[in-house]
Amino acid sequence: MLLLAMVPSVSVLTVSARAAAHGFSHGLMTALGIVAADTLFILVAVYGLALLAEWMGERFVFIEYLGGVYLIWLGCMLWRNRPGARTGREEGDASLFASFTIGLLITLGDQKAILFYLGFFPAFFDLTRFSLLDTAAIVAIAALSILLAKLVYAWLADRAGRMLREGRTGEWLNRVAAVVMVGTGVFLIVRG
Q: Rounded to whole angstroms, how far apart are CA atoms 14 and 183?
């Protein structure tokens, strides 16, 4: 799980972009959103795979589009943001909630995560024999692995962002992070 979580992906780019642009706490919240979605996938794989497949149907594409549009919107907001004008108050709860939400939406729309948890995951485990303790252990292992990997990226991106935030370099960093977010959003929409 740890090695899979460390592989560069859309979620790694998003965690890194949020941490570089807004600080480690935003990378942490994005990673927590990713963990929340992965936990949901595990619970669905263990307790309701057939129900989800029937219910979601074409709604999956809607979630992917929603995540893509949200990423594009965040990228546009970041593009307009002036690094020197930022204060601690502007990086408060609303922005942290946005970071969590984007991590959640990206993972809910990630076909690789869906394929792993709803396709390969049942091949590794006999889900009919899972107890609550087994489920809790799998959720804990997945959450710790994913969180650890994403937090390493968030920490590195935050350190790089702190070095580059001053003056024109900070503006350049915002532009790069904005382009990554918009590009990721466009990718999610086109792929959908």
A: 11
